[in-house]
Amino acid sequence: MKNIDSKGHVSGKSVYLDDIPVRQNTLYAVVLDATTAHGKILSLDITEAEKQPGVAGIFTYKDIPGENQIGGIVPDETLLAEEEVFFQGEPVAMVVAESETIAREARKKIKISYKELEVVTDPREAASKGLLLMPPRTFAMGNPEVRWNNCKYLFSGSTEIGGQEHLYIETQGAYCFPMENGNLMVYSSTQSPTAVQRAIAKVLGLSMHNVQVDVTRLGGAFGGKEDQATVWACLASLASHLLQRPVKLALSRHDDLRMTGKRHPYSSDFKIGLSEELKILAYEVTYYQNGGAVNDLSPAIADRTLFHTTNSYFIPNVKATLYSCKTNLPPNTAFRGFGGPQGMFVIESAIAKAAKELGIPASVIQEKNLLKENDLFYYGQKATQVNIRKSWKTAFREFKISQKQKEIKAFNRKNKLMKKGLALMPITFGISFTATMLNQARALVHVYTDGSVGISTGVIEMGQGVNTKLVQVAAQMFGIDAIRIKIESTNTTRVANTSPTAASAGADLNGQALMVACKAIVQRLKKVAADIIGVKAGKINLRDEQVFTGGKDIGISWDKLVTEAYSRRIKLSETGHYSTPIIYFDKEKGQGHPFAYHVYGTAVLTAKVDCLRGIYEMEEVQIIHDFGKSMNQTIDTGQAEGAAVQGIGYMTMEELAYDKSGRLLSNSLSTYKVPDIYSVPKVLVVKPLKATGHKLAILKSKAVGEPPLMYGLGAYFAIRNAIRAFNPDFDTFDTPATPEKVLMGLYGKVKDKRDKNS
Ligand code: LUZ
Ligand code: MOS
User: What's this model's pTM, rounded to 2 decimal places?
Assistant: First the structure.
């Protein structure tokens, strides 16, 4: 089935927040943000700004009628700064005016002064000063300390992995208006309508039922709107509530880049021990997560890093410790992969380090340690239906990897100033929210008397195609044409208490809830058909818009069946509730079965480096991916390709730069580079692994949003291998591999970030 949004997107008719026609009397808000990364606010003077014609109001924390608190996991985040600011870009005040231009002009007239305090931007420095967002966390299995003695080979090292800007095409924003009796209507570009609803109620001192949040779709999110859409929705609501007028707040790209958090950079130390046969016997890792100024989702992201510490490998003795470091940067947040890539990068670096020292390709060590059926993940879950070796072997066969390896060797022998590198990147990604509680969803289904159907769930369409999958589910359940099914906007009054659309689990959770609702209606309709012709309901089938019994079309159409059910006063609406079975996790012990299932796959990536200039090209990226039994291969392949390219961008050109004062230097698209059509690998192939799927995946079609991003990590190792073909001493793990860094790597002038003398 085609993506139901394809026509609307191509013709420009799809509705986003900015396309909602505004009401009469709408006001526009802009945010004044902190210009120092850590300081006491000495004075804030709004008199000049307030005098500007067209300004309707300027608000600070003092105007908040409820609690000035929007922290989702830990209550440590103010909506508007009080006496102290903790990052550049932190909202301090809001200007509301008749137009956005007026609001912007007035914003310039606000005078604010600070007493500067110490700024920390480096996570290790924060940790050494005891600046932590939460106590350090350790997960362990076995005992690496004991095993080091038995290891034939021991290697250790450090890694740096950068952050990443989400760069959703649609910036953050919200549009609110007051309704009667003090209620509020809120349109928000959010992955988490319930989080927005809850925070607004708290900030305004209302009940959740006073706040209705509605979302049609987002122009991309990638995790950036899981937690951080809340700020703007709360601010717009605050103004709307106080002024009793409609208020729109949509960030400009500059404001968005400066004020919102990114993917977490990590700095890490590892130690790895191998046997003579190259089995990894022990692995120890310490992560320093750069959390930014407040918790946001950092604790949950820390969990996922710890869960993905061993990537696709079985390691019997593991100890992983994570320091979530409080720095004076915007709060870093969810981003596709959610801490997983940062964990997986370190084990891949450890393997690459071992391979370098032993003078063998990393793939030899990778292959020897891939997970097998019934191996234990170090957090206690047994690996079942493991497809990692199968994807690895299929990749070798399909993509002729051994031959490629030989060709690259020959190429590198022949060419002095052009070098190629190849890397394999196996991925194993756990599907479920790591917070077990969030693994639930609900749906609401109406069958109308003309046989058309309306469905609502808690899921958010953000370009990933989940709405199309839900329409497919309902069409299949009722045995009717998809054209009859309308998917409603996501609205907190139709489906309440939604989990964010995140963790790659949107289709699984909401699809299952939808199936539960559809099934109940189908059961009642079958009973009606059975009554009409006098057979048992179990004998009835609905398909092709007709009623069948024993494989025979009995001449009752879907429309007729629905009309008949209605005239018999049968209920044609239903809700569905789903909560993932079998999952649990004991946080104290760090053991349990947190994931419904895992997604597997293997990528092979080749890079070509120009050793005079340091520029490079990703030549080929070929992937065998475990989609399960894909319910929509076009959508799923698109997700895999997009994720892989986003992962490659993360590893290569996307460089976030903050200066020592905590100011974002890469604050526009001329200084922050993202992959474009020219930098996409010339060959980008995604082939589905022949697989049976998993019973906890929607229609056995596995979750696809995040896992393929991690293939992109291989780009770093492919480039590293090419550099090493020119300069065998190159031995750093520091992303992104920008051409500047590659050039320095080629000529041995690799600057250790922490060595002031180098
Ligand atoms: N969000 C979340 C996520 O709240 N919990 C998760 O486990 C998760 N995983 C991936 C992406 N977003
Ligand atoms: Mo996410 S990183 O919002 O699944």
Answer: 0.97
